[in-house]
Amino acid sequence: MIRSKSELKSILFQEGCKYISANLKNRIIRKFTSEISYEIFRFQSSLRRAEYHSNKNSIYHKVAYILSRRKYNRLGRRLNIEIYDGCFKPGLKIYHSSGIVVHGKAIIGSGCNLHGNNCIGNNGIDDKVPVLGDNVTLGVGAKIIGNVTIANNTTIGANSVVIRSILEEGTIVAGAPARKIG
Length: 182
Description:
five-stranded parallel sheet, alpha/beta, six-stranded mixed sheet
């Protein structure tokens, strides 16, 4: 939850450095050529702005929230990303934008990395959702489904399906269903 304008600026700077070079020339080129990393950051920036405005009560912030949410929904449809505001703590990095779906009630820690075609959601039977710790990395095609908890510094291999909690920090899991491999 982003509470202040300075916190919003700090998060946008931190996450922006992951996508866009600090070099002004490179930033201008990425923006002008509409590189995918720039477009993903635009989505993420709108997402963070919506989070900030959702915590304020004035008319200005309510309108700004609606406009930010509209922008990230439009960009999300174009990039094939479905993420709701308030799910991710600071430090999110999306490497490939294809097919990312995150349940609106999921709780994801800071420094999460998504490599594309990921799903973090409920199991379809109940509305219980995953809780991910800090610095969790999901490989391409990795899915986390149901009422599971993922410990900090966990890496989930490509095309893995996690349906059980991973409580040991620093674990590497892979497979369907996912099992510890390192």
